[in-house]
Amino acid sequence: xxxxxxxxxxxxxxxxxxxxxxxxxxxxxxxxxxxxxxxxxxxxxxxxxxxxxxxxxxxxxxxxxxxxxxxxxxxxxxxxxxxxxxxxxxxxxxxxxxxxxxxxxxxxxxxxxxxxxxxxxxxxxxxxxxxxxxxxxxxxxxxxxxxxxxxxxxxxxxxxxxxxxxxxxxxxxxxxxxxxxxxxxxxxxxxxxxxxxxxxxxxxxxxxxxxxxxxxxxxxxxxxxxxxxxxxxxxxxxxxxxxxxxxxxxxxxxxxxxxxxxxxxxxxxxxxxxxxxxxxxxxxxxxxxxxxxxxxxx
Length: 298
Hints:
Elements: H1 2-10, H2 13-19, E1 38-40, E2 49-54, H3 66-72, E3 76-80, E4 82-84, E5 87-93, H4 105-122, E6 126-132, E7 136-143, H5 149-158, H6 167-177, E8 183-188, H7 197-205, E9 209-216, H8 218-221, E10 227-232, E11 239-244, H9 246-270, E12 273-278, H10 283-293
Parallel strand pairs: 5-6, 5-8, 8-9, 9-12
Antiparallel strand pairs: 1-4, 2-3, 6-7, 10-11
Helix pairs in contact: 1-5, 4-5, 6-7
């Protein structure tokens, strides 16, 4: 009964009905391996005519327009708008650092993931979810259909925090193991000293279209604490005692600005969509703002 209540209250049902009206469309013309729900500009077998082109050796005779041949005495092939099957892969960070914040970043990340899954499933896309920390967790393989949403919620509610963050290793392993590329959405605080550039390079090489959703607590972005503090590193358990004065606070702010700018620069260079999420923003406001900006949905 308790699990059922958790699932029912995880995302507001009225809000989900609003989300259902939105459509997920593949950006940048992602080409899926089989006929599906999304359009792409290439020849195919759907009924929507696109254009003609001259016949070339090896073309399928079935697509020759014999009426045009009768008028022009030249062979032309009919082209059609092909429909593509879109697969959405959501990788959600469950490392120890996601447990900090108010609300905790992992809870916020699960809500974001659940909403994106709902949108994809409502649009008949294939949607899969995989957790990661220092290694990949157990996956919920891509499936399609609204009936899958309940099992997605159960999967997300079963996830527990644990381990350090190793984005490069996990993303590289996922790119190597996945046989059906599509959109890869990474939901993480991106707080990995080793960075994540090699991981996203592997995904790009594997023909994924990448979106990064970085989730940070307000205190991480705009610290308000001062004075004598005892700090605990979430992933290593290391304890540090510091006196946080104005100079040290300004140094932190400079470093967090540089950190965020480096992420933006990397995403700009690599053609990656990026969205920074402050957990102090109400979840519904964040998601609607994200959709309005068209980071994933067009």
